[in-house]
Design a protein that fits this description.
The complex is a heterodimer of chains A (263) and B (336). Chain A has helices at 42-49, 72-76, 94-99, 114-126, 142-155, 172-189, 200-206, 224-227, 230-237; strands at residues 4-13, 16-22, 25-26, 31-36, 57-62, 65-66, 79-82, 160-164, 192-196, 209-214, 217-222, 239-245, 252-259. With 263 residues, chain A is an alpha/beta fold. Chain A folds into two domains: 1-78 and 159-237, 3-Layer(aba) Sandwich (Rossmann fold); 86-157, no CATH class. In chain A, helix 4 runs antiparallel to helix 5 and helix 5 runs parallel beside helix 6 (172-189). Helix content of chain B is 78%, strand content 0%. Chain B has 14 helices and no strands. Chain B has helices at residues 2-31, 39-47, 53-87, 99-113, 119-143, 150-174, 178-185, 194-213, 215-223, 225-230, 235-257, 263-275, 279-303, 312-329. In chain B, helix 3 packs across helix 13 and helix 5 packs across helix 11 (235-257). Chains A and B meet through helix 2, strand 7 and helix 3 of A and helix 1, helix 9 and helix 10 of B. Chain A: This is ABC transporter ATP-binding protein. Chain A: It is a peripheral membrane protein. Chain A: Residues 4-240 form the ABC transporter domain. Chain A: Keywords: ATP-binding, Cell membrane, Ion transport, Iron, Iron transport, Membrane, Nucleotide-binding, Transport.
């Protein structure tokens, strides 16, 4: 039984629904990736699951509780969110930014306890950002900065981490660096990772479970063998894809593709 | 963890330095004035019950005026800092975003309808007016997608402010109270009395204390709305509280001295350059620097063209406008 799932979740503004009666289960301690074309509702879905926006109807259930009725601070101890391109935290050092990950555990004026400092250092350690601890966030490269934001989510010590396109604006090496970090958080610490990704091959390579959306509805949800499939990609992206195998990981991959003309 | 502790330590030194600067500024403001007074007069006026013409003058005219400068400077600087953090808009300022204009219009309306209104009612009207002004500006912003961009909001602020000032003037003309209205709103601390201060200061103190209590929440909110929600902040609740604080501080300031733009814009930017982006440091520092700045502006207004007074709002605007342009040019990154 998954700890986190949605029931007939509809999200939108007024008459226009972006996500329609979606019921999904997020497998525990696995990496789940949401894919789909631009405007298909992937980010919207992620925001609704993480209570950033309220759904029009339907529910998101975590540990048997409807999250819209749950104490938000309690939720912040269970799930962390890394939004798409967080604004740069000008003037903050890496250590200071990561320390905000301890916010759900604090009250009043937010004095950090010994336990908090340990969690912060540990998060910096795990994400390989401990060396930058005293540097301003602004002075870092895009990849480093993204790892620092992930460190903040790690310091939150949640079982579940959500990320909205964590690799956008990063070069190939840094993209891989971030994804491998998330993979380590999953395998070594058993954290559930849920992310929106644009790159199909990265999704296939790193995800245990892929949810493919089109127009706010699920086309296919399953492992990469089931989702990175000619018929699914045709439906989701309207492409004619050539599916091969990654020679190193043996995962399915989209080798090349064409747009489907006409119709 | 050594350096993690360094910032608070450094902040303590900065705070001490700021307080010393503030005290020096206060001394200068108290010593300089139209009437020749000596340091001894000022000292006696402040510390003893001694009487005498000059001592009475200092105690009843100069002191309330400088106290008004201190509290208004602090209140507007804090209000500006909160607005900038909350909206993540580097150009936010109670004067630029329609709050002071709203309070101003409400003040005119109150003077017109209830000529005998006591000071307390006038201040309440200013709160309501500031809130209406803010709602109008953000309402215009909300009408369009992307309408909350810093410059757009400032444009909406200009439009709404112009309208509200026109309304205030219209009321003044229609009810033949233009002189009364402009006496309030010319932006001066001239004629501040102890009775007024007694009404306004508690409001500013309470507003400041609430602001300081929520400073950490404000820092989280200033990072990004989504980050704040993710960290378990009740963002709507926090924003309502902070909005009320802004209204209290701005309304009280307008009730005391009338319009004063740019303080709320300028001071937090200067302070951020010193103490960083943590509002637990920004807010108290803004209060002290804002108070010192107002003392400075008021003193300057008294000596620049003595024996005539230059309105302090004119001085503040002269200093603030270049600052505004600099921030616009640097895309909000100036000094921070």
């Amino acid at each position: 039984m998954a700890r986190l799932y949605t029931n007939d979740l509809s999200i939108g503004y007024g008459e226009q629904l972006i996500v329609k009666e979606l019921s999904i289960k997020i497998p525990d301690k696995k990496i789940t990736t949401i894919i789909g074309s631009n405007g298909c509702g992937k980010s919207t879905l992620l925001k609704a699951i993480t209570r950033i926006i309220a759904p029009q109807s339907g529910t998101v259930i975590l540990d048997g509780e409807n999250i819209s009725k749950e104490n938000t601070k309690l939720l912040a101890k269970k799930m962390a969110i890394l939004p798409q391109t967080p604004e740069s935290a000008s003037g903050l050092t890496v250590g200071e930014l990561v320390s905000y990950g301890r916010f759900p555990y604090q009250n009043g004026f937010g004095r950090l306890t010994k336990r908090d400092y340990e969690a912060i250092d540990w998060a910096l350690e795990v994400t390989g950002t401990i060396d930058y601890k005293y540097r301003p966030v602004d002075a870092l490269s895009g990849g480093q900065r993204q790892r620092v934001w992930i460190a903040m989510a790690v310091a939150q010590e949640t079982d579940i981490i959500f990320l909205d396109e964590p690799t956008t604006y990063l070069d190939m090496a840094h993209q891989l660096e971030v994804l491998e970090l998330l993979q380590r958080l999953n395998t070594e610490q058993g954290r559930t990772v849920v992310m929106v990704l644009h790159d199909l091959n990265q999704a296939a390579r790193f995800a245990d479970y892929i949810i493919a959306l089109k127009d706010g509805e699920i086309v296919k949800a399953g492992n990469c063998e089931e989702v990175i499939h000619y018929d699914v990609l045709k439906k989701v992206f309207h492409i004619d894809a050539e599916i091969g195998r990654d020679p190193r990981t043996n995962k399915p991959m989209c080798v090349t593709y064409n747009l489907i003309k006409g119709e | 963890m050594t350096k993690a502790h360094q910032r608070p330590t450094r902040f303590v030194y900065q705070l001490i330095a700021a307080v010393l600067m503030f005290l020096a500024m206060f001394a200068v403001a108290m010593l300089i004035g139209a009437a020749e007074t000596t340091a001894k007069d000022v000292w006696l006026a402040l510390t003893s019950r001694a009487s005498g013409d000059k001592i009475t003058l200092i105690r009843e005219i100069r002191l309330p005026r400088e106290i008004a400068a201190i509290f208004v400077g602090a209140a507007l600087a804090i209000a500006g800092a909160i607005m900038q953090g909350m909206t993540r808009n580097p150009l936010a300022d109670p004067g630029l975003l329609g709050l002071t204009a709203g309070a101003n219009a409400a003040l005119a309306l109150t003077l017109a309808l209830i000529p005998a209104a006591d000071y307390y009612s006038i201040m309440l009207a200013c709160f309501a007016g500031a809130a209406v002004g803010a709602f109008m500006v953000f309402g215009i912003g909300a009408m369009k997608k992307g309408g909350f961009s810093p410059l757009r909001i400032v444009l909406a602020g200009v439009a709404v402010s112009t309208l509200l000032y026109a309304i205030a003037e219209g009321i003044g003309l229609a009810f033949k109270i233009s002189k009364d209205v402009s006496m309030w709103t010319a932006g001066g601390m001239i004629g501040t009395t102890w009775a007024q201060l007694q009404v306004v200061i508690p409001v500013i103190v309470i507003g400041t204390l609430i602001a300081l209590f929520f400073a950490r929440q404000l820092t989280i909110l200033s990072l990004s709305e989504e980050v704040a929600v993710g960290l378990g902040q009740k963002t709507t609740q926090i924003k309502i509280i902070l909005f009320i604080v802004i209204i209290l501080l701005t309304g009280a300031s307008v009730a005391l001295v009338g319009n004063m733009t740019f303080i709320g814009l300028m001071i937090p930017h200067m302070v951020r350059a010193l103490v960083g982006t943590d509002y637990r440091f920004i807010l108290p520092m803004s209060a002290i620097v804002g108070a010192s700045f107002m003392l400075f502006a008021d003193t300057l207004g008294r000596i620049i063209n003595a024996p005539y007074e230059t309105p302090v709002s004119a001085i503040v605007t002269m200093l603030g406008l270049p600052f505004f342009l600099l921030i616009v040019r640097k895309g909000g990154k100036a000094f921070s």
